[in-house]
Design a protein that fits this description.
heterodimer; A: mainly alpha; 0% strand; B: 268 residues; alpha+beta; Heat Shock Protein 90; 2 domains; 7 helices
Chain lengths: 214, 268
């Protein structure tokens, strides 16, 4: 099983934060509830993607749809984290902008049957920017909480590490698939999966502290 | 050996890995630093709480001691004086007493009651010096120093010439009066000194008081440094935003600084 790690282990790892978050009733918090939805959809998408792939069909239209849902859900997460009416408006603007970019990427710049290398990095950029803003905000408020005991610090770190590290990967997926060797594709795929795994682990820790913060 | 230019796509995993590593390190250092800052702050808060606890304990001890002293004074002086007066009154037999004896009894009785009244005045004076509210800190403290000089137990040299005419408010006056009174008592009890010098100076918005005696010095007074009296001094200085430092010299010297701010000056 050459793709055991990327194809089975990491998608299955989604279950760890998902189950843990549900067991600890983290859905009581709006921000954690959004992340639980995100994890559920990521898991479901992975399963469907495997099935379609196993049937030797192109599963990339699913990625286009997933990019939009993932982006909207993570923007919604930051909508819950960042307080104030102005942020609600900004998040709404980001969501509409992302939806527009996703549609243009799927039907104008690329096609549904290729990687969405404009929409996915755009979503990653928006999410990374918000994650960095939240991080800066936390540093400013350092007197009020201990980051090692605060749920948001862990959840935000997970999002930031995954999306910032994978930005280049998202941007260059089409040329990578066409031009790199199988061995390099293997390395890049595994790296991306590893970052995803780190994000799920950090989410799990974040859900652990969500109970403490209550 | 193939170079990087042979396969530019090798840069992709390299950049991904470097980004991830740098970000991980940055977040780790950031959160560790934040945690350390919080730990230091928590320790400082604990130390402050402990200090406040000590001060509170000292206040309670001081109050208890003051209550005991008042109780003792009332019992020993007033109680005994009144009991003696009652005893004398009960011993008086109006049927057998002559006018000469009555006159003698009356003089004796009046003297007895005057003694009690004097004790009451002395106790109330100690509780709240009337000169302090009537004439302000300067006159009240001069009166205290003069009474010390009259007692012959110690000579107090007071220099208040450099003070501009100002009035400390009631709370600050009482606090400063008690602080200096406590220092004088400490000198009398522990220092075996013969002379106390107290110099008041005012610079800008700060009142500086130099208290010195020619006694046994810091080593003798160090024994009482952690005593109730010194804790009282610290508490009273805290309440008026003042500070003090002990100076190394022959004898004992304490320099006190009190900021003359809105909360310490009488605006009336």
């Amino acid at each position: 099983m050459k793709h055991m790690f990327t194809g089975v282990m990491v998608p299955a790892m989604t279950l760890l934060p998902l189950m843990y978050g549900l067991c600890r009733r983290c859905y009581c918090f709006a921000s954690c509830r959004t992340l639980l939805w995100y994890l559920s959809i990521a898991l479901a998408t992975n399963v469907i993607e495997r099935i379609i792939g196993a049937l030797h069909h192109n599963n990339l239209p699913l990625l286009h749809l997933y990019t939009l849902i993932e982006g909207v859900l993570l923007l919604q997460f930051y909508g819950h984290v960042l307080e104030g009416k102005i942020w609600k408006q900004r998040i709404l603007f980001f969501k509409i902008l992302l939806a527009g970019i996703c549609v243009l990427d799927a039907f104008y710049y690329h096609s549904l049957w290729t990687f969405n290398t404009y929409a996915r990095p755009a979503a990653a950029l928006m999410i990374t920017a918000l994650a960095l803003y939240v991080l800066a905000d936390q540093i400013k408020k350092q007197e009020q909480f201990s980051p090692l005991e605060q749920s948001l610090a862990w959840l935000n770190s997970g999002v930031l590490m995954y999306f910032m590290s994978s930005l280049l990967y998202f941007s260059l997926l089409n040329p990578i698939v066409r031009q790199v060797s199988d061995s390099l594709w293997f390395v890049i795929g595994h790296l991306h999966a590893f970052f995803e795994m780190v994000m799920y682990l950090l989410f799990t820790v974040g859900f652990y502290y969500a109970k403490h913060d209550r | 050996m193939p170079s990087m230019t042979d396969n530019p796509y090798l840069l992709i995993p390299a950049v991904m890995l470097v980004t991830f590593s740098v970000l991980s390190l940055l977040l780790f250092l950031l959160y560790r630093n934040q945690n350390q800052v919080l730990k230091v702050k928590a320790q400082m808060n604990l130390a402050q709480l402990a200090h406040q606890g000590e001060l509170l304990k000292a206040i309670i001890q001081s109050q208890d001691e003051e209550r005991s002293r008042i109780g003792r004074d009332l019992h020993d002086d007033i109680g005994t004086g009144l009991a003696t007066a009652i005893f004398k009154l009960q011993a008086l037999n109006p049927l057998t007493i002559t006018s000469d004896k009555f006159q003698s009894f009356q003089d004796d009785f009046v003297q007895q009651i005057q003694g009690v009244a004097e004790q009451v005045r002395h106790i109330s004076h100690h509780l709240a010096p009337p000169a302090l509210t009537l004439f302000g800190f300067g006159d009240a403290f001069r009166e205290l120093c003069e009474s010390m000089n009259r007692s012959g137990r110690i000579a107090v040299e007071l220099d208040m010439l450099e003070i501009e005419p100002f009035r400390l408010n009631a709370a600050a006056s009482l606090a400063l009066y008690r602080i200096l009174e406590e220092l004088i008592q400490n000198t009398i009890k522990h220092a075996q000194a013969t002379v106390i010098q107290i110099v008041f100076q005012q610079a800008a918005a700060v009142l500086r008081i130099q208290y010195a005696d020619n006694g046994r010095g810091q080593s003798a007074t160090a024994q009482v440094a952690k005593g109730l009296g010194m804790q009282n001094i610290r508490i009273r200085l805290d309440t008026i935003g003042g500070s003090y430092e002990l100076m190394a010299r022959n004898g004992y010297q304490m320099n006190i600084q009190i900021p003359l701010m809105h909360s310490t000056i009488d605006h009336g």
